[in-house]
Amino acid sequence: xxxxxxxxxxxxxxxxxxxxxxxxxxxxxxxxxxxxxxxxxxxxxxxxxxxxxxxxxxxxxxxxxxxxxxxxxxxxxxxxxxxxxxxxxxxxxxxxxxxxxxxxxxxxxxxxxxxxxxxxxxxxxxxxxxxxxxxxxxxxxxxxxxxxxxxxxxxxxxxxxxxxxxxxxxxxxxxxxxxxxxxxxxxxxxxxxxxxxxxxxxxxxxxxxxxxxxxxxxxxxxxxxxxxxxxxxxxxxxxxxxxxxxxxxxxxxxxxxxxxxxxxxxxxxxxxxxxxxxxxxxxxxxxxxxxxxxxxxxxxxxxxxxxxxxxxxxxxxxxxxxxxxxxxxxxxxxxxxxxxxxxxxxxxxxxxxxxxxxxxxxxxxxxxxxxxxxxxxxxxxxxxxxxxxxxxxxxxxxxxxxxxxxxxxxxxxxxxxxxxxxxxxxxxxxxxxxxxxxxxxxxxxxxxxxx
Length: 451
Fold this sequence. Notes:
By secondary structure, the chain is α/β, with parallel strands linked by helices. It contains 17 helices and 12 strands. The strands form 3 sheets. Strands 3-5-4-6-7 form a 5-stranded mixed sheet.
């Protein structure tokens, strides 16, 4: 369900990380991607592979989590004001069985479910004047037109979960729904839409105008989405306000809105960060910290791929000492990690040194580092790690380092530890799927063309 013709238009940039916990059948899509040496074959994540996929499907099928119908929402009059979940008509929602099917059919190139992350503008109603709704409608029109979709499911907490005042039955449904929401934000096959733009200061004085980044719930939603989600699936619409208002093409909106991805962190570090954030209800601080901890525990115990390459969007602060410390501590907990993408993150020699212990503590097979700025010292540090990284068999390094005097000794050390010389790739081209790159490197005709 979800596509009028069953096929999305091709995207100029579609990068698909996968977090597999078990072998499964995967859909295959061909799209125009700037792979290393032009490889353009791409594998697509299946919802059954995603962390918490079974929890999401149960919540949707049971109706504990309702998906707002985009088709219904777009049919509402201009002065429409969103009502709470219990007060919306039945036709406002995707039927539970269909909602589950939408999740099962969703993938990163053709997402059927969008999850909203936004600041509530008042305690009684999150969007009393339709300020957020206006941007949601503008985005949906562009997205559905480009993807040729006739329906999209929307997780909007106010409409998707029972709100106060709640009956005893409503409370039970609410508690069951809470078990799904961290996985909805973190799933690789849902799109998270951040609404960071706020009304002007001279708006209604009763509104809560605390910015998105200063709020506890918003912080946790962004952190959960930033653990395993693809860069093209985490969009900050405040970066594309002008494009939304002019009815621009969805690809332009997406490329402008690619979020400045937050550096992932351990649950303890997040709990400390939340001490500086604002909550309407103090009890929520412990609740959201526990939601993140639960998500992190499951992700770190089973995730094999982390895609943190920067594909666009606003510059971020991954190169700072504090960010690198958080990243190193975070990566050390992923004991099954096989593929790590860190392209275009501004990593310099010092960054490589700080990340070295974490890199050598995981069973990495593919390490993708093109587009970074480290030099000879960073390369030597990686060379020192090779004896400890026995499972590493594919390494992408910044193209400029290939012509340094340190490159040849690095390649000799690589081969001395039983690795294939052609599995070092000196390139800055974005790698969307390292497994496909490795398959191409193993093809004799393709490999000989690189000599």
